C-alpha cells in the first residue's frame, strides 16, 4: 500500500498559532499602550471640564463677592480628582503686598485659593482669576484676576478666600460662595498714612504690587499684557513684582517750585510737553541772578540756565550733552540768546519764562551753559555743558551748524527735542543749581518763595488713582 506525503495539516496549525500569537500581542499592546492613552484622554477631558467649571465659578464669584447676590452655587464634576479650599495658613501661601516708594505704609492682603487636582494637573481660583498649572511647572491664566489698570487708575478688589473643605471622587461637588464683608483699604484718609487720591508723586513716585503665588508666572504674563507696567519675576520666592509710576501732582496748574521738578511717565515721541513754564520772583531785581535746573538720565545731561542780562532782562540758555554719542565728553549742544524782560507787580520783580515759547528763538552757539560758581548744585550732576559740536547730530532730519539757517530754532522746538531725548532714558528729575549759601545776599541769586512752575503733559502709564478693597469670601463644598 502506498502512502501519500502531505504538509497541509501542519501548515494550517502553524497558521492558527501565528494568528493567535498576533492576536495576543495586539491585545497586550492595547493593554500596555491603548488603555493608558484612553485614561489619559479621560483625564484630559476631566481637566477641560474642570477648567470650564472654574471659569463659570469665577463669574459667579464676582456676582456674589463684588455684586448684590449674597450667595452663588456652582457644580463641579470631580472626575476622580480632588477639590480643596486652601486659605492662607494651610501652606503654600498666596497674597498681595502693595507698597509705595518712600512710604513705610505697606498693605498686605491674603488671597488663598480653591484648587482642583487631577494627577499632576492643577486648576485653581485665586485672586478673582482662574489659573491652570502643568506638570512642567509652568502655569497659564484662564480667566483674568480682579486687577484692573488702564494707565491712570488701578482698581484692585482683592478676593480673600476662607473656608475648610476637601472632597474627592467621581461625582459632582456643589461649591458655595458667600460674601463675608468688604473693607476699603485705599483710599482711607482716617489711616493718617497718605492713603488719599490723587496719589502725591512727591511722596510716592512708584506703586509696587508683589504677588506671591504658585501661579506667579501667569500673574506676571497677565501684568505684562496690561499697558504701562514693569514686571519682574522671582522663581525662588514664587513672586511677580509689578511696578506702576505715579503721575506728578499739580498737572495743568501753577505750583510752588520744589525740587526735583519731576516728569514721570513722559512719552519719548512727538512733542512730549503741553506746558512747562516758570513765574520767577527775585528779591534783588534779578541783579546777579544765576540759576539753572538740570537733569541726568543715563549719560545724558540737560540744563536750562537763566542769568541776568543787564539792564532789564534775563537770558535763557540750554545745554545738552550725551556722553554715549560724542568723542569728547566736554563737547555739548548749547543754545543761547533768548531774552525775557523783567516785570513788576505787587509782589515785586518777576519774569515769565515759557520753555515752550514758540515766538522766541534760541541760537545754536558756543556757550558755557550752567550756573557759575555753583557750590550748592543739587545732584545728579554739577558743572556746565561747554562748547558746541560742529553738528548737532541728535536732531532728526535737520542739519544744524553755526552758519546755516537751522541754527535758529524756537524755544519750543529746542525744549521738546531735548526733553524727548531725555525721556528715552526714563523718568526725568530736574534739580536746582545756584551759587547760593545760607545767607540772604547769595539767596538773591535764585527764585524767591513766591515763584511757581506749571507742568502739564499726557503721561504714559502713570497712575493717579488707587482703589484697594479686601473682599472676604466663605467657600464650602459638598
UniProtKB/TrEMBL annotation:
Keywords, alphabetical: Membrane, Transmembrane, Transmembrane helix
InterPro entries cross-referenced by the UniProt entry: DUF7289, DUF7308
Top-level taxon of the source organism: Archaea
Presence of the UniProt keyword Isomerase in the record: no
Residues annotated as domain DUF7308: 269-429
Annotated Pfam families: DUF7289, DUF7308
Spans through the membrane: 12-39
Protein name, as recorded: DUF7308 domain-containing protein
